[in-house]
Write the structure tokens for this entry.
Amino acid sequence: MAYEVTHRTEYRYPSTVSSSFGEIMMLPRELPGQHCVHSALTIDPAPHDLRERLDFFGNRTAYFAVLAPHTRLSVTATSLVRVHDRQVQPSLPSEASWEQARVSAIDSGAYADAEVLEASQFVLDSPLVTLSEQLAEYAAPSFPPERPVLDAVADLSSRIHDDFKFLPGVTEVKTTIEEVFDRKAGVCQDFAHVAIGCLRSLGLAARYVSGYLETRPPPGRARLSGADVSHAWASVYLPGAGWADVDPTNDQLVNDRYVTTAWGRDYTDVPPLKGVIFTLGSVQDLRVSVDVIPVDDPPDDPAA
């Protein structure tokens, strides 16, 4: 599959903003099964400075500075992405249990392995995901002794999907996992945080992944422009096999309909856009639109 992804964010202010500084994390990563053919950022008003680098987790991160007075700011990221074989899961032996994955991920004796050492940071608490006995107890029915780790993770994802209600508006970006668990409701960010908290509370390394999911209109209806949204899911580390991505919001393993932009410990590491403005007013209006449109598989060089 190949997708043209467009993510637009527009701010309108009631009074003049003298300058804006921001960080953008909307550009797809390069990873096995995903290749970004090309990508571009468009900022209006034109920025005085715009530069890109890789952050601590290897995510493509752009920084910009708009120094001219303005009452409107728009940021648009466009990308052409090829996705393939995302549904192929790591070649972990079927008999490998979740206990083996946990012990390998945190065993100090394995720290000579750079991959395991890197994964070990995702076993710890993070700003929005705190380990707890409550989360471990909730996860326990999915993780009986010696159960294969992928089976256990898939079962946990299904239970979160069934037990938590998808309900926009009841949470915000800073809502903690304890609040989400008490409400049993939230959005994809919250579902991912619950899954990650459960996995970490059992000693498994789990990270937060952000990106996009191609949505499909009901049969007989046309695709609506700007109707897609940013998405989030969880990823669990399988020592010796890599990472396996699971989407508890939709109760499925990640497949070729997903595009990955970034990953981190939780949402605080990978917001699509954040920044600082200098003004005496406030944000009057915020508009976000996302399009994930399937296209013909492009060549590596779109000019070819």
